[in-house]
């Protein structure tokens, strides 16, 4: 089955135990816009929050499922071990380093990783995040910061950067990335602990990279609050997604088949180390049920859940997201 190359990162979905604190940090401290407040479509008793650029352009979304009873994460292998967020320049990192000190955000010192300036930090639940400078970058375009963000545009986060995977068996994941998904090896570098292989797709650059690290000295990660649930990669449209459904079927790779998510269409499967991958369409986007000006202010439900709104709202803890 002939398919077009994946266009880069679409979104990353992670876990939080506290939607309110999560909302406060990602909007008030990091300055992202909440573009959609909805529910986990597989478990409508919990929130699904989408943070992004001004309108949730594909490649800018960091999303969270709220699991109130989620335990701590025991970090390890076979995991999405780092989510990068793009900022415009090296100077931006100095701004963020100062801001993290002001807001008591746990962070490392500014460093260089694979030729780019980076700043590793964690949210209050231990979510592993990395600011990456786009000063020397070219490739997949970023998004557009929201004008009402508390962060000046010249320093603002405007998209997802490289996704870091830590696995116990390199070859299996490499086969999926290259032979199935069409990523190409770009370069290699040495991190603190091991060699990292950089793969890229689409136009490449920070918005189209996966960084793969192999660690045989770690146990398998036990996910909880502060862990990443899955990473999604961009597919142009529904027609192209259906070609991917057929391709995985032909390759006999177990998968979800086509899944309707209303804001985009999806396909899910796990690579051999157990990491969950999603392929997601660029559209329709987040403005089908809310106007641009008030995105994320009310609980949004796709049409097929609207008749259950009363019972869904009754189970959710109120979360005020109006500006």
TrEMBL record:
<dbReference type="InterPro" id="IPR037523">
    <property type="entry name" value="VOC_core"/>
</dbReference>
<keyword id="KW-0223">Dioxygenase</keyword>
<dbReference type="Pfam" id="PF00903">
    <property type="entry name" value="Glyoxalase"/>
</dbReference>
<dbReference type="InterPro" id="IPR029068">
    <property type="entry name" value="Glyas_Bleomycin-R_OHBP_Dase"/>
</dbReference>
<feature type="domain" description="VOC">
    <location>
        <begin position="159"/>
        <end position="282"/>
    </location>
</feature>
<dbReference type="InterPro" id="IPR004360">
    <property type="entry name" value="Glyas_Fos-R_dOase_dom"/>
</dbReference>
<dbReference type="InterPro" id="IPR052537">
    <property type="entry name" value="Extradiol_RC_dioxygenase"/>
</dbReference>
<dbReference type="GO" id="GO:0051213">
    <property type="term" value="F:dioxygenase activity"/>
</dbReference>
<protein>
    <submittedName>
        <fullName>Ring-cleaving dioxygenase</fullName>
    </submittedName>
</protein>
<feature type="domain" description="VOC">
    <location>
        <begin position="8"/>
        <end position="134"/>
    </location>
</feature>
<keyword id="KW-0560">Oxidoreductase</keyword>
